[in-house]
Amino acid sequence: MMRRRTTLLTGCTALALALGATACGGGPVSAGGGDKALDGQTVTVAGVWSGSEQKNFQKVLDAFTEKTGARTQFVSTGDNVSTVVGSKIEGGNAPDVVMVPQVGVLQQFAKKGWLTPLSQTARRTVDADYAPVWKKYGSVDGTLYGLYFKAAHKSTVWYSPEALTAAGVRPPKTYDELLKAGRTVSDSGLAAFAVAGQDGWTLTDWFENVYLSQAGPGKYDALAAHTLKWTDPSVVKALTTLGKLFEDKQLVAGGPNEALNTDFPGSVEKVFGPKPRAGMVYEGDFVAGVAHDQYGKAIGKDADFFPFPAVGGGSAPVVSGGDAAVVLKDAKNAKAGMKLLEYLATPEAAAVWAKAGGFLSPNRKLGLDRYGDDVTRATAKSLTGAGNSVRFDMSDQAPAAFGGTKGTGEWKLLQDFLRDPSDPRGTAAKLESAAAKAYRD
Prior knowledge:
By secondary structure, the protein is α/β, with parallel strands linked by helices. Residues 1-32 have low confidence and may be disordered.
């Protein structure tokens, strides 16, 4: 999640609550068949998750205990994983396993010498069951340290079927069709989009989808690594494209000022709450959890999604985020921690959380029937079916000072751009200045 994207959210649980102890398409999900080889040992796990996410992950840890005999202890770090884990290492109290929500943080940990490379068993599973892109994002300088357990599909546009039907609009296939459909929705009495501009990370996600589709994966990778400058014409072009939506008061609920005072949960409420203000909201698959759990929407009936449309003749983008499990080198029980990672790499482990809802796995061996509803199955199929065309959230790959800090860097500059999108070239120059400083430091 994933970092700030999902720590507040529950997942798409439309059918999971009704499933009880039985998984969709099979019997009870259980670790089962273990030899209790780790009986008496304790594995400590640190991660950003809280609330229902933490409870669902605990079900996975409990299944590991049932299989191996090892006890587990989960510690929620909040969003600032790097600082919390660093202080625990310095204090001689390092956890065994950390669920890392950012590629940049994983790289930081590896370069500080904090991480243990994945075992041969875990590496074999990743090679066999995951698209190579997940190995790439879990590796630093050719060494695989991170096992991606939970993923998010961040190229989904969520909508009210009632609102689109009333406007006579069908899910669009291109960005231009998206804007046209939005204006038609607006003519019917609702704004097209609820935009969560108060949370700068949502704006980075808007930009990343436009940029990946319009500029292509090669330039996306270069920009993410900052080997391509933000002043490149491709960036200016993407900002110009995004600006067409931001500047159109017919499209954004309440215009830029209201958008800048709307956080992510508030944007979902404007579409799926008791008093709808808009027909659509862009964000990841985790929108479904809020729509269902907060507003009782039946996923696939009262709330549905379409893929983020292709931009400028490019391919439809597939942007993802995710949480990678790593084992700390200074951990007191690193060997048992690595056994946990080997378990997390299996479809057996993924099935536990898939049954509970609010979860997507990058593991291609997890059967789609393990997910609780058709919409989640569709998002999972889109994610795993994209193979190497998936690209990890760009801001999560950047140093936190640029891509992950409230009130500074990319978050702040894209909020300024939402407020006034009239100067894409000037915004690109400011982004480059902030990026250059962050990557240099």
